[in-house]
Design a protein that fits this description.
Elements (H helix, E strand, L loop, with lengths): L1 H9 L2 H11 L5 H8 L3 H13 L3 E4 L2 E4 L1 H22 L1 H5 L8 H4 L9 E3 L11 H8 L3 E6 L6 H10 L3 E7 H10 L1 H9 L3 E6 L8 E5 L3 E4 L11 E4 L2 H15 L3 E3 L3
Parallel strand pairs: 4-5, 5-6
Antiparallel strand pairs: 1-2, 3-9, 4-7, 6-10, 7-8, 8-9
């Protein structure tokens, strides 16, 4: 029964699409056909298979997930999303230190959705890629967490705040000390601007290189398994990714102390 149920869940795109559709709520056969762009005969075949396995039920011409389906399909959705994220850029993930992502966020990595990897021009390897800077400049609310210092931080953060962007930073002690020692005037200027907040957390509490989340996009950057860092960002505009990125940022901010003056 277990093996057969796995086959039913994962070995047919039509069945997977139907189950994910019914996860949104009960549907008539006409709604199913229209949404999935299928004909009656093929989809009825899949419906009969799913009903035989007690994954869906029919009542008053409405098809919906059974009690078993309501347990299994959400978990199936998470697995499929995770597969899609990791399979999209397998070479990237296999070489990154994924243990740096807090476990609760690693479990939901599939929420990154339809991401792309962006890298800076070779002449600007210590700056954000141009695409990221463009999206930042168009955002009204910016949250950045970082354990890796980029020389662009002082000027970029001041520029964003000066034009009215609400910007909150969470830095590790390492990044904060670097700012304090090498860019103290810029740091003081930043803290004196109206829409700025700065938090500092213990070096051991943040293992990712950096993350960005705004109301428009999120970006994630990791260290390689070797500990080496190359400047890059995984960028996603999916709502699920923005929610994931906001949760990750709040996780780090919750372990940090506020800095109001230097």
């Amino acid at each position: 029964m277990g093996s057969s149920l796995l086959d039913v869940l994962f070995l047919s795109e039509k069945r997977k699409n139907l189950l994910l559709l019914l996860l949104e709520g009960p549907k008539t056969i006409e709604e199913i056909k229209s949404t999935l762009d299928v004909r009656s005969s093929p989809i009825m075949t899949q419906i009969k298979i799913l009903m035989k396995q007690d994954l869906i039920v029919e009542n008053n011409r409405l098809y919906k997930l059974s009690s078993i389906g309501e347990i299994l399909v959400p978990k199936m959705k998470v697995i499929l999303e995770t597969f899609n994220v990791l399979d999209k850029n397998h070479d990237y993930w296999i070489n990154q230190d994924m243990t740096s992502i807090p476990p609760m966020f690693l479990d939901s990595i599939g929420q990154l959705g339809d991401y792309i990897e962006v890298n800076p021009d070779r002449n600007y390897v210590f700056e954000y890629p141009k695409e990221v800077v463009k999206h930042l400049s168009e955002s009204e609310n910016v949250m950045i967490s970082s354990s890796f210092f980029l020389p662009i931080y002082p000027s970029l953060c001041i520029e964003l705040a000066a034009k009215g962007t609400d910007i909150t930073l969470v830095f590790t002690e390492y990044v904060y000390d670097r700012m304090l020692n090498d860019y103290k005037k810029e740091l003081e200027h930043f803290l004196n601007l109206k829409y700025t907040k700065l938090y500092v957390c213990n070096n051991n509490n943040m293992k990712i290189a950096s993350s960005i989340v705004t109301e428009k996009f999120m970006a994630l950057s990791l260290f390689c398994n070797s500990g080496i860092y190359y400047n890059h960002n995984l960028v996603s505009f999916d709502d699920s990714a923005l929610k994931w990125g906001k949760g990750l940022f709040d996780h780090y901010r919750g372990m940090a102390r506020p800095i109001t003056r230097v």
